[in-house]
Design goal:
The complex is a heterodimer of chains A (397) and B (112).
Chain A lengths: L19 H14 L3 E6 L4 E4 L1 H7 L3 H4 L10 H17 L9 E6 L5 E13 L2 E10 L1 H56 L6 H29 L6 E3 L1 H13 L8 E6 L6 E3 L1 H18 L7 E8 L3 E8 L27 H11 L3 E5 L8 E7 L16
Parallel strand pairs in A: 7-9
Antiparallel strand pairs in A: 1-2, 1-5, 3-4, 4-5, 6-8, 9-10, 10-12, 11-12
Helix pairs in contact in A: 5-6, 5-8, 5-9, 7-8, 8-9
Chain B lengths: L1 E5 L3 H13 L3 E5 L2 H6 L8 E5 L7 H9 L6 E6 L3 H8 L6 E4 L4 H6 L2
Parallel strand pairs in B: 1-2, 1-3, 3-4, 4-5
The chains are: A alpha+beta (397), B alpha/beta (112).
Chain lengths: 397, 112
Amino acid sequence: MSSGPFTMREDHSESLSTDASVSKARLHSVLDTAVDGIVVMDDRARIILYNKACERLFGYSAEEVRGRNVKMLMPEDYARRHDGYVKHYLDTGERRIIGIGREVRARHRDGTEFPIELSVGEAHTPEGRQFIGIMRDIRARKAVEKRLAQAQAQLVNMTRINALDEMGAAIAHELNQPLTAIMLYLQAIKRKTDNINSLDDTFASVIEKTVKEAERASQIIQRMRQFVEKRDPERKPVDVSELLKECLELASLGDASQEIELSLEVEDDLPMLHADPVQIQQVVVNLMRNAMEAVKCASYRAVKVSANKTDTHLVIAVRDSGPGVPPELVPDLFKPFSGSKRRGLGLGLAISKSLAQNHGGDLIVEPGGEQGGAVFNLKLPLLAAGEAQPAERAETI
Amino acid sequence: MTIHIVEDDPGVSDALALLLASIGHETATYPDAESFFEVNPPGDRDTVIVDLGLPGLTGIQVIRWVKRLKHQPRVIAISGQSSRAIDRLLDGETADVLLRKPLQEETLLRHL
């Protein structure tokens, strides 16, 4: 070929394609095979060439756009400035987009704007300078990015709420014991003093007031507990395979450079799971992040997620190639505030376990070591066909 | 007529015994299920107050053991856990009475 990567003139000098029409036909078939939109314009921004993909992308046919200004494919704000851009480049040779490429917005015939990735090249032809624009529709990619960002934000939010819940429950439980003792002691002493007539009035009234205050503390704890307990999972049918795929995407966000081999193995024909997808996702992503942390220093770094069913349960296993869980950490692994990580509260596994249990399932660890890494098994009950959700429990006294 | 208190938290156990003694009950305390099983089984006029979250053998095992006795005492289960955790601990078993901590004298005495 003579000049530039993409000459538009009909070339008679080449010996390989002796027939000019063959060469031209070949060029057109190449252009029309391309998945990306390709537009060629002259130095006055008039459209010379417009391929099939563009027709799909913009809704105009090639005949409709030929010879017209390329601005028609742009939203108003870009269109207004485009002539200036072209002139600036022709005058100064300063490249703003040529050879660089960037994400811009395009405009369909019906007025809708959509994101594209635009790369622009230049060709010097006997007919003058021409510019080639290659446009890739990135709506799908954008949608995925947006969905992932939303899912992650939701996950972070859920983690916060659950951390508060778990902390509330832990505090309520820990404070309950001493508070129970205090109240019983006070009630015993109050009972004793009731029978002593000679006792100073102040003494009796202070005990009375102390009992009241202890009762107030107890009511605060009860309210806190009710608040924490009323959050039940929002169950709906969940496609396990889809859910886990998304978990892999979420877990790998921001960890692209760490070269950890993430894999997923899902048994065929798994039934739909009846669960709160956000909560389950939270548990799995949390387990995966722990696993990825655990393999960081290992020579072979892999995290494998698998899903299998038993007669009654679905088991999601997160297996890593790390050194396993040290035996001394195993007994307290799922207890709140027992984590060994410097960051965070050590609530991750405690929350994960209680989320699993709220679903009627459980989270169990196979600590590994010696032979291999740890495996965390998330077990969730599968409903038999036609079976309803378990009834609300009767209120206890 | 004895009230047997099986509770691992020494504060709760002692306070409970003190309060019940102050209203004229005879009490016996045990820090765990194992030591409760070592003494003579309670009679049908006795009461057993058992914490569900015992270390070692659990409160639920105490309830099952008591329910198999020929002369069954009354069983009051107590717990500081959340209602979901209590469901899991009970595992389908039932106590005559289930009280949640913090315990109030009034509610407790109603069931004695």
